[in-house]
Design a protein that fits this description.
This protein is an alpha+beta fold. Helices cover 27% and strands 37% of the residues. The chain contains one helix and ten strands.
């Protein structure tokens, strides 16, 4: 009799656990679909050159710890680029010259990386050669997350690294 009662209990427990596992799988699938949709929107925005990057974190090449960003963004509308860094980050050199607004940007799509990330270069021409800026942007596969290396001047020395999210904008933003 005890064996007969244990069997339905085991079957019920198995069914519950199977249902939980299936529910987790559905949640992961929904997340993957949402991430791919964000990636598609971000990639299209980059290719159309109508995007804003909301900066989340700054990293410095000299090994200092990363700094969270507030009020920092990079946007592009056709050949017009605006780079605005947080005032608490960029009050003086070398970051004050990174607050840029120019209509001289040229963007090129580079080859995708081995793991499928998309790569873009944005070159901003300054009035003088030392004011030129190069943004090397990597859009991570299946997300709208990006990594940007900012290089400046004649020798294209890396000034800062940025982590953020690519968001589409309209032509009127």
């Amino acid at each position: 009799m005890k064996t007969a009662l244990k069997l339905p209990g085991i079957i019920l427990l198995t069914a519950i656990l199977t249902g939980c596992a299936a529910q987790k799988q559905v949640g992961r699938t929904d997340q993957a679909i949402a991430s791919q949709a964000l990636y598609g929107q971000a990639l299209q925005a980059l290719e159309e050159q109508h995007f804003t990057i909301e900066v989340g974190e700054f990293q410095f090449p000299d090994g200092k710890p990363p700094v969270s960003a507030t009020d920092s963004r990079i946007s592009m509308q056709d050949s017009r680029v605006v780079i605005r860094l947080s005032p608490d980050l960029a009050p003086h050199r070398p970051f004050d010259h990174l607050n840029i607004e120019a209509a001289t940007a040229k963007m090129t799509r580079e080859r995708s990386t081995k793991n499928g990330d998309a790569r873009f270069d944005i070159k901003v021409k300054g009035a003088k050669k030392w004011q030129d800026t190069l943004l090397q942007l990597t859009l991570y596969k299946n997300t709208n997350e990006c990594f940007v290396r900012v290089k400046g001047g004649d020798s294209e020395v890396e000034t800062i690294r940025i982590k953020g999210h690519v968001l589409p904008t309209t032509g009127t933003d």
